[in-house]
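Notebook, p. 212. Picked up where the previous page left off. The plan for this session was modest: take the two constructs that came back from the sequencing core last week, fold each one, and keep the raw output in the notebook itself so nobody has to go hunting through shared drives later. Recording the first one now, exactly as returned: residue sequence, then the C-alpha cell string.
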Amino acid sequence: MMKQLVEKSGPGSAPEPEVLPGDLMSKRDRLQLVLVLGSLIAIGPLTIDMYLPALPAITAGLETTETAVQLTLTGTLLGLSLGQLLIGSLSDVVGRRPPLLAGLAAHVLASVLCVFAPNIATLGVLRVVQGLGVAAAAVVATAVIRDLFSGDSFARVFSRLMLVMSLAPILAPTLGSALLRWTEWRGVFAALAVLGAVLVVIAALRLPETLPVARRRHGGMAGTLRDYRTLLNDRAFVGLVLVAGLAMAALFGYISGSSFVLQTQYGLDEQQFGVAFGAGAVGLIAGTQLNVRLLHRYTSQQILVSTLIAGTAAGLLLILLAVTGVGGLAALLATLWLVLATIGLALPNGPALAMSRHSQAAGTAAALLGAVQCGIGALSAPLAGLFGTGAVPMAVVIAGGMAAALAVMVLVVPRAALRTVDPDLAVALH
C-alpha cells in the first residue's frame, strides 16, 4: 500500500500541490514507515555506542593505548560526517534507495571485517567505513520524511520517529554489556553485522523509492556547491551550526571518556557501566521532552541561551568535583546527568533555529548541520585521552564544549536574525 501511494504521487497527479503522498497514508502505513525509518536511524547510535563497554577490553586485547582506542570512535564520527555531505546530495540526484542499500551493505561488510581486525589501525579504518554506512541510513531516513510529509504532518511523524530513535542510545551500551557477558569484544561487531544485514532486507522489501525522477536535482556538482556557498555566507546559520556542533562535542567528550572513567577509575564492571550510561541517556531524553513543554512559553532562542548558560555552569561544577573528589561517584554522576539534560535542551533548538533560515535548501542544510555536528564531535572524542583517561580531562572537554557554544551564541549569532522560526519545523525537531 505504501509503495502504491508513492507511485501515484508524480507531478500533476494531486489536485493540490501541497498534498504529499504521506497525507494519503493510513495510520497502519504511517506506523510501518515510522518503524522502518526508526530502525534505520537507530543503526547509527548502536554502531557508535554498543562497543563502549568494551573499550578497556579492546585496549588490552589489541595491546594499544586508550587514546588510540578512542580514535576508533573518532573514525566512526568522521565517516558519519563525510558520508552525510556526500550521500545527502547523491540521494537528491539518483533517488533514496540506491545510496541507502549501498551504505547498509558497506556497514555489514565493515562490521564483519571488524570481527577479524588484527590491530588498532585496521579497526580504526573499518570504523570509518561503518560511519559512512550509517550516514546513508541517517540522511536517507530524514530525506524520506521530507519527501512524504510537510507542515503539521511532518511534525507529527518526526515526533513519533523521535520516540523510536530515543531508545537506541539507552539500549546500545546495555546491549553491548549483555553481549560481553557471553562473548569478547569482537562479538559486538558480529552482532552489528547481523543487525545491518536485517536492515538491508527490511529496506529492500518495505521502503519504496520516495523521490520521483521528475523531482530529482539536475544541477550537478555546480548546483550543490552553490547551495553550500549560500549556507556558508549566512553568519547566523554558521554560528548556530557551530553551537550545535560544540554541544555535540560536549556530548561526545562524555561518550568517549565515560567508559574509562567509570570502569577504570571508579571500578564499575561492564554491566554497571551499561546501567550508568543508560541513566545518562535518560537525562538527555528528559531534556528533549522538557523542551516541548518549554516551547509553549518561551522561544527557541530564549531556551537555547539559558540552556547554554546552565550547561556551562554545570560543566564547571563537574570540573570542581572531578578535581576535588567531593561527593565521590554519586556527585559526579548527578552532575554529569545534569549536563546531559542541558545538552538535550540545546541540541534541538540550535538546529531548529538554523534550519528555519533555509527551508528552500533544507536537505543540503540538514546534511551540513549533521556533518559539522559529527565532525566536531569526532575531534572532541580523543581530546580527553590525550591528557589521560581520568575524570578531570573528561570534565574539561565537556565544560569546554558548553562554554565555547555559549561564546559562539553570544558573540557570533546576530539576535535580529532569530526573530522568526518556522513553527512546524521547530515542533518537528523537538
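Okay, moving on. Second construct, recorded in the same format:
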Amino acid sequence: MNQQVDNKEKAVTVEDIIIASHTIKDVISPTPLQYNHLLSERYGAHIYLKREDLQSVRSFKIRGAYNRIKKLSEEELKNGIICASAGNHAQGVAYSCHILNINGKIYMPNTTPKQKVNSVKFWGKENVEIVLVGDTFDDAYEKAVECSIAENRAFIHPFDDRDVIAGQGTVAVELLNDCEEHIDYLFAAIGGGGLVSGVGTYMKHVSPSTKLIGVEPLGAPGMKESISKGEVTSLVDIDSFVDGAAVKTVGTKTFTICKNLVDDIVVVPEGKVCTTLLSLYNENAIVVEPTGALSIAALDTYAEEIKGKTVVCIVSGGNNDIGRMQEIKERSMIYEGLQHYFIVQFPQRPGALREFLDNVLGPNDDISHFEYTKKNNRERGPALVGIELKDKEDYLPLIERIKAKGFLYREVNKDSTLFQMLV
C-alpha cells in the first residue's frame, strides 16, 4: 500500500505538541488520570489509567484529527476533506467537520461495528458522507486515497501525519501535568502508531527514563514486525477483531519514531484482550472497546518488572458495540480454557446422547452448544458440541472420559479453519 504523506518531512517536536495542545484546547475534553486500586493491588504497583474513553467522542482520535484539519488553508478546504478509518478517527474527523462547517467524506470498512458508524453520523450530521467499503482499514484507505485524488479533497491521515501525531501527543502533556509521581512505565496501544509516536515524543523529552511500552494485538503486530525487519513491512493477513489496532501497514513516520523511542512492544492475544475488557467492566464499571483494553492486557507480561513502580496505561477508546459482547465473552472463555468445541460422532441408537451426558460430562460441566441431525442411513452421526467448564483444570479429565467411553471426536478449538467455519 502506498502511504500518502504531507509535505512536512521535519520530525515531530515537543514544540509541535505544545502548540497542538493550545490549538485543540477548546474542542477536546481534558480526560482524568485515575488511580486504579484493584489493578494496583493485583500487580503490587501504582497503576493509573488515562481515561481517553471519556473523551468527547470516546477516544483520543479527536486530538490529532482536529489539530490537522485546523491547520488546513482555505484553498485546501475548498473541495472538502476525506479520511479512512476503522471508526475512532472517523468520529474525530466528523466532529471536526461539523464544528468547523466543513464537508467531509469518510471511508470505513464494512466490518466496522455499527455503533461506530452511527456515532460518525451523529457527530458529523449533515457535514459528512459515509462510504463503507472492503473488509479492513487498508481496503478503505486505498479507496479513500483514490477518491481524494479524483475529487481533489484534502486527505486527513489517521496516523502517518505530523500534525496528527502532534495532536495525539497532547495526551502526554495532560497526564504528565496530572501525575505527581515519576512515571516508570507507560503502556499505549499501537495501530498505525500515531498515539505512541506522539506520546513517546513528548514523554521521552520530559521524562527520558520512563519506559515506553507499545501494545499490539496478536492478529495484527505490524509495528513489531516492521521494527524486527528494520523497515515498514505490510502484513499479509490480519485479524480485524481489535478493529482500532487492526492495520496491515503502519506509517512511515510513525515507524521511524517508534523504532527510536519505544522500549518494547508487547503482543497480546485477542482472547486476552477480551478477558481484560470483561474484567474492566465487571470489576471497575469501565466500558472500553478492544483497543482500549490493550494497554492493560499487557500488564501480565510485565508483572515482575512493574512491582513497586508507577505505571500509566492509556485507555485509548470506549466505542464498543453491545452487540459484540457475546463474541467477546466467547473469545475470553476460549482463551481462558473454559469453552471447548468438539465434533462428536454419536452412534445412531437410542440412549447415545444420554450416555454422553451421564458418563462424559463432569459435575460442573455444561453443554453450551449442540447441533445434531439424525441420518437413518448411517451408523454414526456427527454433532457439534460446545462444553463450558467451570475450571480449566477440568479439561484433561473431560478428554479422558470421552476416550474411555469410546466416542469418536475431533477438537474444533485446535483446528483454526474448522473453528472459523463452525463456531
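Notes on construct two before I forget. The chain is about 40% helix and 20% strand.
Flagging for discussion at group meeting.
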